[in-house]
Amino acid sequence: MKRKLAALLVTVLTLSLVLVGCGAKTDNATPPTKKIKIGLSMNTLNNPFFVAVKEGAEAEAKAAGIELIVTDAQNNPAQQIADVENLIQQKPDILIIDPADSDAIAEGVKKINTAKIPVFTIDRQTNGGEVLTHIGFDAIKSGTIAGEALAKALNGKGNVVEIQGIMGTNVARDRSKGFNLAMAKYPDIKIIAKQTANFDRGQALNVMENILQANPVIDGVYAANDEMAMGALAAMDASGRTAKIKLIGCDAIDPALAAIKAGKMAATIAEPPFFLGKEAIKTAMKISKGEAIEKSVILGSTLVTKDNVETVKTRD
């Protein structure tokens, strides 16, 4: 009887140790990794450039297993502030902003600062609030490249038109500054008209129609983005003057590349938005991991002409 009782006690003790061991294993199990949530406030998605920014961000976020929330301010600074407030309520780990207006967005950035959410800007800068970094292109360099390319296409002389973007953004101001710096080196080139079209194709069409009617001799046009270049081109086509005018844009969106291939545009400046979107998510990942980042990240710009339009890379 004693032997049976001893055997039973050994069995119970062994089973208890096994159960304790299992319990210890459960307690030490690695907790599931928290999924990173990123908010992306876009100034508009009614423009191929910014659609491509979103697509690049989505591609990188999907590859990294990140939850990405995208909003569209429809080029309305007030709507973008509302978008930012909504994103703050969703408690993202990081917020990325592509401003509709550099001055107006400062209010939104300050709200994000108050919420203690890491934030940075892409493409266009903010004129207020604290951001960890800014990712974009050198807009002065871009404008200068465009100006030099137009001067070369015109052999250093002729009548030129400048169609400007949203002058409340650093991008529009800096592209114009770079273009005019280049033009100043060519005394035989005259800027006969300079007007804003707010980076909008429809507005550029109307602007260019009026300029064409008022000026019988136009040799070159610089549009500060390709959407405006497409609007200007439509007006030039309608007037039958496309063959006489050298047109240069910026951004290297697909319609502009097609126009270069067709001989209707002289050049554009490749500032690939898809890669801008990817870089934004990569930077957000670094921030989430506590890694060091640069205060400013400047991506490369490339002149695209008929000579390299077939090989230029604008997305993965």
From TrEMBL:
Its main location: other. It is found in: Cell envelope. Residues 38-291 form the Periplasmic binding protein domain. One of its GO terms (cellular component) is cell envelope. GO terms for molecular function: carbohydrate binding. Keywords: Signal. Residues 1-24 form the signal peptide. Pfam families: Peripla_BP_4 (PF13407). PANTHER family: D-ALLOSE-BINDING PERIPLASMIC PROTEIN-RELATED. Belongs to the bacterial solute-binding protein 2 family. This is D-ribose ABC transporter substrate-binding protein.
